[in-house]
Amino acid sequence: MFHIYCPYCEELREEEEFHPKGQAHIERPKDPEACSDEEWGDYLFFRDNPRGIHHELWVHAVGCRKFFNITRNTVTYDILETYKMGEQPRVTAESLASQQTQGNVQVASGGQQTVGASSAAAEAIKGEQA
Amino acid sequence: MQRYSGFGLAKHALSHHENWERQWRNPTPKKQYDVIIVGGGGHGLATAYYLAKEHGIRNVAVVEKGWLGGGNTARNTTIVRSNYLWDEAAALYEHAMKLWEGLSQDLNYNVMFSQRGVMNLGHTLQDMRDIQRRVNANRLNGIDSEVLTPEQIQQIVPIMDCSKNARYPILGASWQPRAGVARHDAVAWGFARAADALGVDLLQNTEVTGFKIRDGRVFGVHTNRGDIEAKTVGCVAAGNSGVLAKMAGFRLPLESHPLQALVSEPLKPVLDTVVMSNHVHGYISQTDKGDLVIGAGIDGYNGYGQRGSYPTVEHTLQAIVEMFPIFSRVRMNRQWGGIVDTCPDACPILSKTPVKGLFFNCGWGTGGFKATPGSGHVFAWTLAKGQAHPLAAPFSIDRFHSGALVDEHGAAGVAH
Ligand SMILES: Cc1cc2nc3c(=O)[nH]c(=O)nc-3n(C[C@H](O)[C@H](O)[C@H](O)COP(=O)(O)OP(=O)(O)OC[C@H]3O[C@@H](n4cnc5c(N)ncnc54)[C@H](O)[C@@H]3O)c2cc1C
Ligand SMILES: [Zn+2]
């Protein structure tokens, strides 16, 4: 079970209040009529589907009903940050790779898993996100 | 290969079953093969088997990062049926169904294919309209398919709550008598043993870490055990297909999701068919050993973790107990997850790719076990001839640019 920090409600809430909506930051082509079949099909159907760091769209369906973004590891399922619509992620696969080489893997957290997660992480994010 | 038979069983009993031959060899990788199959699940092993058997291509390696069948093949709820809505899908799954019907004999391996019938329940008027439409479409395609009334359902499954006051009222069901279940491990092992006997090298604990590509053409793979060359490479890696595509430099229209299942403690025989409800996302059957096998829906988020979330299990069990109050005190033994590669139209991809010589067979998502022999059969043809088998042709990646999707979502009650 995820505990997800909604950046609008500014609270950790349980997974069941939320719905995942797939890859984040996909921009609808500005002029769809001008798209080739290739471009339009790519926009509709093709996804990054990475094994590792993933930026994804979620909606706080039975809470504030707002959409927001999560950066999550698709292997460990760790939630690394949550951020509002229109914002850019602070944690990316690239930033993590460079931090790792510097021996520093501390990242902002946007929530936790109840299994095997530290409650300190949940406390830490309040300051981080504010 | 030592043939299995009743006589052999009796003979080996005399030596306390200690002298059985190993089922397959454990070869060291050669430098070069005619064809490399990436992924030793049921589909990959079936592909290798039919390549050797039907096309005489025996210099083949199956490269598997873990153990044979350790992916979704050994994690699924083993439902086999062919009552899909659209002609293209129905033809492909019915092709598989016909192969299932002779598979144990063909492989000389008991895959325990049991045609005990599969029921897809309808709980709403819209469910029933969809079911009627699908059953009619099936019959036009020569697939056995019927609509059952609640009274008929109650006769087949006396323990189900078909009363008017049920939480999920049962208005009817589609019924395919030839559908059923098979033993998933045996399917992987049967294909593996038969392929090995024809000369196929099964390379376990060998992970593909990249492709050797020159001038847009594949000529081999990098693995943790060194490079292996081949001019034709077929990837059959289910949930990890997107990862392999990325290594080869393109994207697929797939998302990888956890899908989970669970089994109960063994019970006396109480359910002799398969009951599925797409509406409440639960399906159930009972194994020969007596365990109830229960499958859930996918987790909505992308994941590669081979485990699922608790809320999903809870919803599924709640629905199962509403439908089968008799199971309310059954204890669950084990729960696990597999990673399924879902496609936007809930149909597979059997296709060439932007890289010449590199083919993908993936996107089977939550329901590919039933297709195992058919998928391997048409994919082997595709690899051998370098062009899509007629049954595979509608399932090329191009459909996501041309718009010719085969939309089985919901329509076929595609849970499994
Ligand atoms: C819980 C659950 C229930 C299901 N229920 C049903 C059902 O009732 N009926 C049904 O029809 N279908 C069902 N399915 C779906 C079905 O299991 C799959 O569609 C099918 O088994 C896929 O077979 P496969 O051989 O393609 O994949 P897999 O068996 O997953 O094999 C792929 C293999 O590729 C290997 N691999 C991946 N990456 C690499 C690499 N880089 N190098 C080497 N090897 C690699 C993996 O280790 C794996 O063994 C279910 C799935 C799950 C998870
Ligand atoms: Zn909120």
Report the structural category of chain A: alpha+beta
Overall average pLDDT of chain B: 95
| Count of the domains of chain A | 1
Q: Please write the string of helix (H) and strand (E) elements of chain A.
A: EEEHEEEHEH
Strand content of chain A: 25-35%
Sum up the overall morphology of chain B in one term. globular
* CATH C-level class of chain A: Alpha Beta
Strand order of the main beta sheet of chain B, please?
Answer: 5-6-4-14-15-16-13-17
Over the alpha carbons, how many angstroms does the gyration radius of chain B reach? 21 Å
How far apart the termini of chain A lie comes to: 24 Å
Could you characterize the architecture of this molecule?
The complex is a heterodimer of chains A (130) and B (416). Chain A is an alpha+beta fold. Chain A has three helices and seven strands. A four-stranded antiparallel sheet of chain A has the order 3-4-5-6, with no helix packed on it. Chain A has a three-stranded antiparallel sheet with strand order 2-1-7, covered by helices on one side. In chain A, a hairpin with a 7-residue loop joins strand 4 (53-59) and strand 5 (67-73). By secondary structure, chain B is of the alpha/beta class. Chain B has an eight-stranded mixed sheet with strand order 5-6-4-14-15-16-13-17. Chain B has a six-stranded mixed sheet with strand order 8-2-1-12-19-18. In chain B, strands 9-10-11 form a three-stranded antiparallel sheet, with helices on one face. The chains are: A alpha+beta (130), B alpha/beta (416). The interface between A and B is medium-sized, with 27 and 24 residues. Flavin-adenine dinucleotide is lined by residues 38-44, 63-66, 70-73, 75-79, 207-208, 236-238, 240, 244, 259-261, 295, 338, 340, 364, 366-370, 416 of chain B. The site of flavin-adenine dinucleotide has 40 residues of chain B, from helix 2, strand 13 and strand 17.
